[in-house]
Amino acid sequence: MTPAVNENSTLPSLSGGLYAFFFDVDGTLAALQSQPESVSIPASVRQHLQQISTLSHGALALVSGRPISQLDELVAPLEAPAAGVHGAERRDASGHLHRQSLPDEVAQTLQVELQQTLDQWPGTLLEVKGMAFALHYRNAPEYKNAIMQLAEEAVTRFPALALQPGKCVVELKPQGIDKGAAVREFMQEAPFTGRIPVFVGDDLTDEKGFLAVNAMHGISVKVGEGPSQARYRLPDVAAVWHWLEQLLLQLEHDNVGKEFRL
Fold first, then answer.
1. Are the C-beta atoms of residues 98 and 88 closer than 8 Å to each other?
2. Which partner from 13, 105, 197, 259 sits 20 to 30 angstroms from 174, CA to CA?
3. What are the residue numbers of the active site?
4. pTM confidence score
């Protein structure tokens, strides 16, 4: 993975353009926490997202490893288009839900086996997402290698699965699912089509999204340190929040200008 093209550059002004916005959540819109259920997004940030969505005529989507039900809770009262579980479930702008899932026998067998194993490793956590599994080791980093081996064995046994490493987590998800594919699907639909995509994310799971956006000559933004395919960089979640404020001001200015010209 090569370093970001413009990783030390200031993000370009989005004033005057027609953009579609895609945001990861954990580590991007919300600070990472030791437990997934402890994550929250400040009310002011949720309000900014709502306003940006309105000013961009609904061309704002969340693209996350979390299920859509959790995303709705985190950004309420906004109910935006969303790709959950890395795109295994996707709600388009019309509210239609597209979902891929694992065979029942695979999901049931895996859940039992994974839980039995992780129960023996204190501090690890199995998160069941319906059509995917997340094996967390943030509170028990000494089990990183063991969890990776467990996940690799599962993928070998069940070809319908793909392995996705992340920050202190390894996920097992259906084959052919990733955030890049989700972004491409959104960009083929109203109100996203014809716009310039902007994708902001922080993790290995977001790299496919960066690549998809780069291929569409969009703006890819990596949050935090580390090598990335993203063309721009923000240092942390607080910087994302500040950038949202500036983005909102730009969109409001552009909107006033359009109203004046009318």
1. no
2. 197
3. 24
4. 0.85
Q: Classify residue 144 as left (phi > 0), alpha (psi -120 to 50) or beta.
A: alpha
Q: What is the 3-state secondary structure (H, E, C) of the chain?
A: CCCCCCCCCCCCCCCCCCEEEEECCECCCECCCCCHHHCCCCHHHHHHHHHHHHHCCCCEEEECCCCHHHHHHHHCCCCCCEEEHHHCEEECCCCCEEECCCCHHHHHHHHHHHHHHHCCCCCCEEEECCCCEEEECCCCHHHHHHHHHHHHHHHHHCCCEEEEEECCEEEEEECCCCHHHHHHHHHCCCCCCCCEEEEEECCHHHHHHHHHHHHCCCEEEEECCCCCCCCEEECCHHHHHHHHHHHHHHHHHHHHHHHHHC
- Residue-level pLDDT, tens digit, the chain, 262 residues: 444 444 445 788 888 889 999 999 999 999 988 888 899 999 999 999 999 999 999 999 999 999 999 999 999 999 999 999 999 999 999 999 999 888 888 889 999 999 999 999 999 999 998 888 999 999 999 999 999 999 999 999 998 888 989 889 999 988 888 999 999 999 999 999 999 999 999 999 999 999 999 999 999 999 999 999 999 999 999 999 999 999 999 999 888 655 434 3
